[in-house]
Write a structure and sequence with these properties.
single chain; three-stranded parallel beta sheet; 192 residues; alpha/beta
Length: 192
Amino acid sequence: DFGECLTNIYVTQDEIEKLSTRLRALSKRPMDASSPVLHTELQELGIRVCGICEPSTYKGTGFAFRKRKPVPWTLAELASHKMIDSRTAGFLSYLVDNQNSILITGPRSSGKTSLLTALILEMPRNSRIIIIEDTPEIPVNDLRALGFKIEHLKTEALAKGFEISTEDALRTSLRLGDSILVIGEVRGPEAK
């Protein structure tokens, strides 16, 4: 309702270190000099976290926390909140019904994932949907609870360990047969 808000909360360096340690433990991922970027989600809170530390920063550690809406947006809700007009909502629904490819672009926090989730809600529940993401943003568990058949491929832009690259995930999904393919956050060669 209010966009980005300022706060009067300030944290000490010691508190940042404790937070970093806690996030590493929860995510089971490193965040150190050899792996200075951390992407994780605190699922029980519906909060996505991105952290960065030295040597990828000139000095210090930084975090971004983003809370998503607990129930996915629908096209009707987006229209009722004047985020899109009803004609655009109808047109997008028509495009999904006719199995058109759709590219959603925009700056950070512009509602790309919210719109994408609303479009997924327009897809037939009996269709197989394959979602490829390197950072989990689409509320897959909520969509599954609504009856959607979703395969959620875990990828990493630069594969580390058990994740596969986004390019490999795309190739694999194309081999899985007749499915609806949803790719979140295109950042690399898979965009071609």
